[in-house]
Amino acid sequence: MGASEGSADATMGADAVVKAAKKALKREESGSMKIKHLTKSLLEKWDSSGSGSFDKNEVRRCIEESELFVVDGKVVALKKKGGGGVIGDKKRKSSAEKDNGESVKDGSATKEEADRKAAKKAAKRAKKEMKNAGKTTTESATTAAASSSGDDSSIQTWRTQHKIVLRDSRNGEEGATATKSIVSNEDYHPYQTFDAPGCREKILGELISHCTVANAFTRPTPIQAQCWPVLLSCDSKTGRHRDAVGIAETGSGKTLAFSMPALSLMSRERSLANKSGRPPRMLVLAPTRELAMQSQKVLEEFGKVVNLTSTVIYGGVPKPPQKDALRRGVDCIVCTPGRLKDLVNEGVCDLGKVRHLVLDEADRMLDMGFEEDVRYIISMCPAREARQTAMFSATWPAAIQRLAMEFMVEPVCIYVGFESIVGSNGENSIDDALSANKRVAQSVEVIEDRAREQRLSELLKKYASGKRSRDRILVFALYKKEAARLEGTLNRWGYSCASIHGDKTQDARNRALAEFKDGSCPILVATDVAARGLDIPDVEVVLNYTFPLTIEDYVHRIGRTGRAGKSGISHTFFQPGDKSHAGELQQVMRQAGQEVPDELMRFGSTIKKKEHKLYGAHSGPVGGLPMKKAVKITFDSDDE
């Protein structure tokens, strides 16, 4: 029954009233009215009647006299001049749907505009709900309540909703990973909206305006909302800002998560502003040229708003223009490690004034291929106590965590959006397991090497023909020569295909990436250089022609699809020689709710304990002993 129709009987007892009210609140019936005012009126009416029952007409009158209703998740006012009430509700609802051009149940911007108009009419009787494109009415109400109240329970509800967990290493053992859960620290209350308490006080208004006006951002992303207050929090005794580690999926807004706080803090410190030849105060290290260019684009755009300059430095291009930019003076540098190390050694770049150090895709920056250069560069920066260090990545393997702590001071670790972090009971249950995007349908096929090319042809006929001929498909190879060979093969098959790998010139890589983004070349063959953090929107399918060297790279690869709330498809060729990864791959698939194929399970599910590639089971050199020299192995050199 609808709440407006009362009971089938002439009278309603207390149990019936309560049941009807609860159903109305929980929206257990289609068409039921979620009306806080109605429920309150019904229960008060029962309490005051004293007769044990009251007529269903009185219930109907209570409903008709209530002004604010939520019908099917939409705020509407039923009482209008000249009559009205529940009887005309369906007609009004139908009319509203026609006026809006769509059903009140959809989640479009038209629905939200209707919500706002209706909410204004009832503003004196109800709190204003925060709106966000693509969010449901329930989620908007939760966000608004948490943002306005700021109480611990509301904040925790919001964090649970977005699967956010904060861990603090403060007062822990030296070098230990963050293990203490943060719940009630007001300094870290998330900026769920741009008007949240503390947001406009700590982040420059010009930067917020550029977000909301120039870019039409409606609210910070979860990683931004939680990282900003952490990075902007300041120790009252030392005046030092907190270090942070941000773990979130690719495409979640990590670049602005570290850029907005740093730009705000640097803009307020004007001692070096606009001075010729000034050394950089912000340093962002990235593993690939493409990722460095992507981050530089964001920093340049937002830096101009507050009169701060930035430049990008990477290998594979002439040095003189980069040297000229450094000699003129710059506030922010975004770079790959190899080329920056060369410029530091040549005396062109002074890192002694760096106050904000960022490692983007930190797990790869600290692996075997980059660790030596990263250590050298960080040693040329001020001591860790004299700078703020932030690390961001989509994965955070246990083998890397202890190593990262060498470069940071009691960081806050912010985990966003992983099922393995928030348990089914709502308790924190962080482990070292990798988590893949649940929106990506993972298909793994055990296959012999000689059968891969024929199978690839079959998959491309399925995913790159007919109505899907313009779908963006990312094909991953393991080596540069393999990528070049696949590009030639696909072009011979008649597909429009390009590739990016280390043997390509930078101009060729930029051109291939641009053509893939704009859809003129819908198939891109890439080595893992493209898997790390690149902004490639609307990739529908990822095909792993060769399985990567690590399970972390697998998660990064398939994370190129299923972004921004969309679904995606990944198809992986798994050869018998890859069997050492079978256990980890099964774990990743199960945690993402995917079905594990029987042929993969035949390899067993054992997961070997990971050791750091350089130090094995130990965290690193101790007791002042010299560090063992690393042998740098790369498949895509940044210094070619």
UniProtKB/TrEMBL annotation:
Signal peptide: none annotated. This is RNA helicase. Residues 133-154 have a biased composition (Low complexity). It holds the Pfam family WHD_LYAR. It is an enzyme of class 3 (hydrolase). Keywords: ATP-binding, Helicase, Hydrolase, Nucleotide-binding, Nucleus, Ribosome biogenesis, rRNA processing. It comes from Stephanodiscus triporus. Residues 80-157 are annotated as: Disordered. ATP-dependent RNA helicase required for 60S ribosomal subunit synthesis. Involved in efficient pre-rRNA processing, predominantly at site A3, which is necessary for the normal formation of 25S and 5.8S rRNAs. Its main location: nucleus.
